[in-house]
Specification:
It is a single chain. By secondary structure, the protein is α/β, with parallel strands linked by helices. It has a single domain, classed as Rossmann fold, CATH 3.40.50. It has a 5-stranded parallel beta sheet with strand order 2-1-3-4-5. Helix 2 packs parallel to helix 3. The termini are close together. Keywords: Phosphoprotein. This is Response regulator. It holds the Pfam family Response_reg.
């Protein structure tokens, strides 16, 4: 069961909208927002035993989503992560790069949609 949802995106509006969507329907699940991959990685390392659903943007300052995926690639077995890349990119090269990481569940287009949220909630038995 998912312990926490981690929104990793440098866009405050996107984070606000996604957090609001999740909180309205699932008020009991903790949501953490980090503005870049480095901050997200630091947070996960502090709580390595939690199960996370991560919605990860690609283009961010400090550490991009791709750099985050590379940073955890060799240690992904240490964590319980369900990672979805949620990006506004329509560049197929981005999708192909993400597809190379076996620990990514899917590459999705922003914004988060209700039907996708329902699917994630049902798949990972997120408590409502």
């Amino acid at each position: 069961m998912i312990d926490e949802i981690l929104l990793v995106d440098d866009d405050d509006v996107t984070n606000f909208v996604h957090q609001h969507m999740i909180k309205i329907r699932f008020p009991n699940i903790p949501i953490r927002i980090e503005s870049n991959g480095a901050a997200a990685l630091e947070y996960i390392l502090k709580k390595p035993f939690n199960e996370y659903l991560i919605l990860l943007d690609l283009n961010m300052p400090v550490m991009s989503g791709l750099d985050f995926l590379k940073a955890i690639e060799n240690d992904v077995h240490r964590f319980n992560l369900k990672i979805y890349v949620l990006s506004s990119s329509i560049d197929l090269r981005d999708k192909h790069e993400v597809d190379a990481f076996s620990h990514v569940e899917s590459f999705l287009q922003k914004p988060l949609r209700d039907n996708l949220l329902d699917e994630l909630i049902n798949t990972y038995k997120i408590r409502s």
